[in-house]
Amino acid sequence: MALEILSPSVNIPVMGVRKSFKKIFYFVPFSVFLLIAVLVLAQKVTTPKSQEVLSSQVQEKKVSISIISGSKEDSYEYELSSPKNAFEALKETAEREKIALEYESYDFGEMVTSIDNQKADKKNYWAFYVNGNLSQVGANQYMLRDGDSIEWKLENFN
Asked: What pTM did the predictor assign?
């Protein structure tokens, strides 16, 4: 009788455990594969929309640059692809449009002396305007913003 107490009284069918383990063994990898497939499909379906939103958010930033001398006015569009100051934009626009540009460099920055062969002299100077207002800083100190309107006007000292 002592032997009967030590032996288990519940019969566990070994075949049933093997079948359950076999089902779990196949079910888990299949579930993981199915989950990965669903995630990959979901990403492919949503990626174009995400790229559309991203490309619409990254719009071109543009600045208008006008050169006004007497009755002559020429306007140019400048694409702002990286942070630039107004003087750099004028230089790049002049180079791109084949406009003669002369300036002198000083400790405080550059001073425009001629644009399109219109020279500043004892009576005239090149004034720098931002959004219709005479700038309170030099062109090399004004950092351009999207939509700015920059004007260079040859004005009299009087």
From this structure: 0.61
